[in-house]
Structure prediction request, 352 residues.
Amino acid sequence: MKKHNFSAGPSILPQEVLKKASEAIVNFNGLDLSLIEISHRSKDFIAVMDKAQALVKELLELPEGYSVLFLQGGASTQFLMTPYNLMKVDGKAAYVDTGAWSSKAIKEAVNFGETVVVASSKDKGYNYIPKGYEIPSDADYIHFTSNNTIFGTQLNEFPGDMLKVVDMSSDIFSRKIDYTQFDIVYAGAQKNMGPAGTTLVIVKDEILGKTGRTIPSMLDYAVHAKAGSMYNTPPVFPIYVSMLTLEWLKEKGGVAVIEKENKAKADLLYNEIDNNPSFNGFAAKEDRSSMNVTFTLADESLKGKFDALCTEAGISAINGHRSVGGYRASIYNALPIESVQVLVKAMQDLNK
Ligand SMILES: *Cc1c(COP(=O)(O)O)cnc(C)c1O
Prediction:
């Protein structure tokens, strides 16, 4: 039996994507060559890059004026690339601190200039999303983490009149929002798109080149945009698998369709958490994530029994992050609702 994979990242990908990806490793496009042993400048790979970029634009409904980049260094490198490319010399940036990933982004920004943390939910262990805060109007940009993978909270509002940067590593392509409200969107591939090794960066072209800084080439969005994301050798395999996942998503009907499925999965699981006396939800109800569902046992002494029920049912990787404890079920796009049904049954069986 295939496992029910609730891993937070790297995480579940569609079965058919894995199958096609494994075929391309042996014989890509009938070339009798592997995808990973041909030039990234061959016409076969250029077609992959073009298609991946076009699918991102189509699925997120991006108009002209945005570049789609597939970079390396993980979302963590974006923590420093965004201030490098957007914070003016003697400028300032605003950050909303909603968890471990926001904190890491802030830690890098302070190396580039004044970094104002306009709001934080650290006071309550990051179990909610701060609202109604003030933002200095002279900030060069404001940075958000749209989904807090570790704590299981998610943002629905992105206030501010300045440039907006958003880390969407764990909820990109999962819900319909207006992506044009952002100037930079970035996401490590390994949560909702493909294998670790590439980071999707969407950047509005007109915002670049205005800081007065000299930026090293590899950290300069403009350099990558001008080169069509081929300034140096791109990570061909993660980009190919991402392209396959985006094709899969398009064939399913796109972001609007997957959003409905994601909501059905999240509702099913949160409903069980709320109605089952053995479990408590971690995140504030109005801020709950539709991607990472965090919960704890009401009675810790039942942990052995619950873990055994999960193992028996083929449930994999629902332990909470080491900083939070409890459980975290990541229910990304590729996770079928049947897996959530199996988890809900295990939760109910705990009371038998
Ligand atoms: C996983 C994750 C990251 C880190 O991504 P890397 O690719 O490992 O650097 C950053 N932000 C969020 C929201 C994440 O979920």
Summary: The two ends are 25 Å apart (CA to CA).
